[in-house]
Amino acid sequence: MTATPSADEIRSQVFDIVAKQAKIDVATIRDDSTLTDLGLASLDAIEVIFDIEERFDISFPEQGINFATGTAGDLVDAVGRVLAAGDQQ
Amino acid sequence: MTGADARAIAVTGMGAISAFGEGAGVLWQGLREGRSGIRPLRHERAADLRVRIAAQVPDGFDPAAHFPERLLSLLDRTAQFALFAANEAVAQSGLDFRAGGLTARSGVIVGTGVGGETTHDEQNRRLYGEKASRVHPLTIIRVMANAPASMISMAHGLRGPAFAVSSACASTNHAIAQAMLLIRAGVADVMLAGGAEACLSFGVLRAWEAMRVLADDSCRPFSANRRGLVLGEGAGMFVLESLAHARARGAGILGLLAGAGMSADAGDIVLPDVAGGTAAMSLALADAGLAPADIDYINAHGTGTPANDPTETRAIHQVFGAHAQRLAVSSTKSMHGHALGASGALELVAVLGAMREGVVPPTINLDQPDPACDLDYVPNQARDLRVRAALSNSFAFGGLNAVLAVRAA
Question: Which positions in chain B touch A44 (Cβ < 8 Å)?
Fold first, then answer.
C-alpha cells in the first residue's frame, strides 16, 4: 500500500483540483475560502468532490459536506479524515 | 355547461403500483394512514452501494401473474408497471374501447424519466461485464421510452395519439397536461395518461449517489433535519375524458382535471427557481379558472432536499399571498418516495383520494420545524379537511415545471 500523503500534499492536490474547476490561479485559494467565494456553484462542487475521490481513491460519506459554507480547508481536513479512517481498517 | 366545465376533463379511472403494492386503493390507504413505503434497499449489489433505502415495489409483485408469457417477454419493468396501472384504470372506468367504437378517438401518453433502464442495465452488463458478443433480440423493444405507451395502446386498441413524454420528475404531469390539451382541442375523446418509472439499476443508483442528493435515513420533507430525497418506483395511469363524454355515458367521475400550468426555469440545470414554480402554479390556476382562495390543498413537489423545500415554500407564498397560511400543503414523497417520472401519478392518486374522502394525507417524518419552511405541511397525521380544489406540483431537474389543478366533481 502507498504511504498516506502528508497534510501539505493533500492540501496541494485538493487546491489544484479546486483551482482547475473554478478556473482560477491556485495561489488565490486560502484555507478559509468557501467554495461559494471561489465561484463554485453546487454542480461544480459535486465535480470537485468526484475529482478528489478519484485522485485519492476514497469515498466521502454520503452526508456531512456542506457545499455552500464549506471551505477549501474543510475539504483538505475531510480527505485527511477519510484517509486516516481507511488506514485503521 | 359553463366555460370552466367545458374546459374541465373528467377523471373516470385510476390505477397504480407503488411501494405500497398493487393498486391505487392500497396506495391511497397507505398515504391516508401516514405509513411509510420506504424500506432497506433490495438489490443484488446492495452491499456495494451507499444507497441504503428506497421505496420499491414489493417483491410480491409477480409480473407472470398479470401478463401472459409471450407479452411478458416484450416488457421491461417500466412497461409492466405502466400496463398494470392502465389495466386497473380502464377497468374502473368501465370503458371497453373496442366494443364502444372508441379506438380511433382514444390515445395514451405515458411520462417516464429514463424508460427501460432495467433492460438497458442487464444487457450492458452482458456486453461489457460478461463480454458477451450479442444482446437479447428484444432489447430495443423493451428499452425504448415509448414502449409503455405502445403496450397500453396495443392492449386496449387505442388508435389515436400515443407517445411518451419525458421531463424527469415532472414527466407524469407534463403527460397528463398533453392529454388534457388533446381532449380540449377535440383531437381525442378519451386519453389514458400518467407515468411510469423503474430505474433502480446499479448504474443509476451509483449515478444518484454521485449527485449527493440522497438521504441516508428517511425522507423528511420540510423538516429542518431533512437530508435529501429517497428514490422510489412505480406507475400511475388515469382515464381522462371530456366531461360531456363522461356524463353522456353515465360514468363515475373521480374528480375533474381543471387545468395545467407548465414553465421552465431557463436557469440552473439542478437548482430550483422560485419564479419557475410560481409561474407554473399561477398558470395552472388561470387555466382552471380558479382563484388562489379556491385552493384548499397542495400536494407539494416536496422532495426533502435542502434546495427544493424552501424554494417551493417561497413560490407558494408568492402565488397565494395571505391564503398560503390557510392552505394545507403536504409531501406524500415522505411515504411513497420519489418515483421520478411516475411521482406526479402517485401524487394525483393522493389528491383524488383527499378530494373524495375529505382527508388530506400528511407529510411524515416532519419533526423539526424549519424557519425557511413556514407553511402548514400537515405534519405526521392525516387531517379531515374538505378539499374542493387542489394543486399538484412537479418541479423537475432541468428546471422543467408542471402543475395540475384538480377540483371536485
Answer: none
